[in-house]
Amino acid sequence: MTGAGLPPRDRESAVRSALIAALSAALFAFAGTSIAAPYPCPPALNDSTVACTFASPGGTTTFEVNVTANASANELTNAFLSLDMTLDTQPCDSRPTIIIPPSTSGQLSGSCRFTVTSKQPVTLLALAQSQDTLEASITLEATSVAFVPEYALTVSTVGNGTVASTDGRVNCGYDCAVVYTADTRITLIASAAAGSVFGGWQAPATRSRRPAR
Fold it and tell me: Is the pTM above the cut of 0.70?
């Protein structure tokens, strides 16, 4: 914003102008965004429990998790096996109890697909409940299947006034930065303070990928 004199017609036009900033993932390279990339999870806690925390620095990631539980029965009695998967304590998938005849083995498989944002990691817990089993094991395989990066929209003002976005997320009196996901369109509106007029945008909106944390 500036108090520099402008012709009345130009002042009116400048005050009413708005900047449309398009943030497009296609314009930026981001290392590690390949589809179907394995996600590292720790080994099972024991023969019936496996847990993994999923994070997505710099954007939003869609994960697909497959869990397999195995058990075998002894020679004399049936064994029983069930599988439950939760995501931050919320049900994600479950498999009802199966009966495993004596001297045989049984298997249950479950899957869960979910999205994780950069602000909120989530923990998946898989529990295989068994009874009268001779041996049991549980394994987890996780894959990231899609990634949408985030970008920081930075706004700096000179003089007296504010810049705000129509979605309400940007409201700057001086300098500010707001993170948006790729392919988001943002309309910025400049408002000059009393005694000042809007002199124009000094440069096009800059686009930069949010640093991974």
Answer: no
Q: For the chain, count helices (H), then strands (E).
A: 1, 14
For residue 201, name the pLDDT band (cuts at 50, 70, 90).
confident
Residue 138 CB neighbour total at 10 angstroms:
22
Q: Domain limits of the chain?
A: 8-29+148-209, 37-147
Q: What phi, psi does 75 have (nearest 5°)? A: -80, -15
Length of the chain: 213
Name residue 66's beta-bridge partners: 111, 141
14 — phi, psi (to 5°)?
A: -70, -40
Closest of 202, 167, 160 to residue 181, by C-alpha: 167
- CATH number of this structure's domain 37-147, picked from the four choices 3.90.550, 2.60.120, 1.10.3470, 1.10.150: 2.60.120
- Identify the DSSP state of 23: E
